[in-house]
Design a protein that fits this description.
Blueprint (H helix, E strand, L loop, with lengths): L5 H8 L6 E6 L36 H15 L4 E6 L9 H13 L3 E8 L6 H13 L1 E9 L3 H6 L6 H13 L3 E8 L6 H14 L3 E6 L2 E2 L3 H7 L8 H15 L4 E4 L9 E3 L6 H12 L1
Parallel strand pairs: 1-2, 2-3, 3-4, 4-5, 5-6, 6-8
Antiparallel strand pairs: 7-9
The structure holds iron/sulfur cluster (SF4).
Length: 292
């Protein structure tokens, strides 16, 4: 096989379901990198509006969101298992009792077969890990930890507010709690080269995460990075360079790490560049050609 797909990974962990669909939910949490507890400006590329369909649902209860979005998925995928996905912002950023309340409608729903929780690696303290371990005994929990890059220098430059060591520590503790862990990376952050992408791939492989989502860097409106880009402070990868980086990344992580996706996501009015990232089929075809 060219690479281990996320679909195959889901089939392994949910063997009774032929198809699994993610249901994005907004848990109404903020982010410590936005509210001042770790940083105020957030990551320099961050605009949640650009990547989550539920970015503006913070005031809507989780139960209500499930009731609103589930029928839409069901119209298209009648028999799919539903993986609830707490997506925008930092979905472990609240006291444990509050988190339990926020997650409960997803864990209690008969339609939901598992719960994916997207968060920062420095925002999963041990008491939250214990809660997730308990919830994992009810339904499969997939903890999605954003790494973005294995370069502390780049993490600092883009204002992530955490280190690579925070990531490896969180993955280790999550594995000790018997959670399934996946990650997100960005290829093409300012100043990075193939060597950085290779180091990031090696870190992902060494961490033992089960899957990784690879994004090209998107420049979106309303971010500090958009201003830096417009001032010409860095350049973006070309289509060909991005595909080469993805192919190299996949070769390094090998077939033990599933590839959730590697095409672009920010395809709405917020996107400034690159102009090729919306062409999913072209990206997939070229990466697969390179892998072959
Ligand atoms: S951690 Fe996530 S939500 Fe917080 S500022 Fe960075 S990208 Fe945005």
């Amino acid at each position: 096989m060219l690479y281990f797909t996320y679909k195959e990974f889901l089939a392994q962990i949910f063997p009774e379901w032929k198809r699994v669909r993610k249901l994005p939910l907004n848990g109404g949490m903020s982010c410590p990198n936005l509210d001042g507890s770790r940083g105020k400006g957030g990551c320099s590329y961050c605009n949640n509006k650009s990547f989550s369909p539920v970015w503006d649902k913070a005031g809507v209860g989780v139960q209500e969101q499930i009731a609103e979005y589930l029928p839409r998925i069901r119209r298209k995928y009648k028999d799919a298992g539903i993986l609830a996905y707490f997506q925008p912002y930092t979905n472990t950023y609240a006291p444990v009792d509050r988190l339990r309340e926020i997650y409960e409608p997803a864990f209690a729903s008969e339609e939901v077969i598992g719960v994916a929780i997207g968060t920062r690696p420095d925002t999963v303290p041990n008491d939250v890990m214990e809660l997730l371990a308990y919830e994992n005994s009810r339904k499969k929990v997939i903890l999605e930890l954003g790494l973005q890059t294995a370069s502390d220098k780049t993490l600092e430059r883009v204002g992530r507010g955490h280190t690579v060591a925070d990531f490896t520590d969180a993955v280790k503790r999550a594995h000790e709690a018997e959670l399934t862990v996946t990650s997100h990376v960005i290829l093409g952050l300012p100043g990075e080269t193939m060597e950085d992408f290779e180091r990031t791939a090696q870190t992902i492989k060494d961490s033992g995460v089960s899957a990784v989502k690879i994004h090209p860097l998107h420049i979106v409106r309303g971010t500090r990075m958009a201003e830096e880009f417009e001032r010409g402070e860095f350049g973006l990868l070309s289509f060909e360079d991005y595909c080469s980086a993805v192919a190299r990344f996949i070769r390094i992580v090998g077939n033990s790490v599933a590839i959730e996706r590697f095409s672009g996501e920010a395809q709405n009015e917020t996107l400034i560049a690159p102009d090729w990232s919306g062409d999913r089929n072209k990206i997939v075809a070229r990466v697969e050609e390179l892998l072959r």
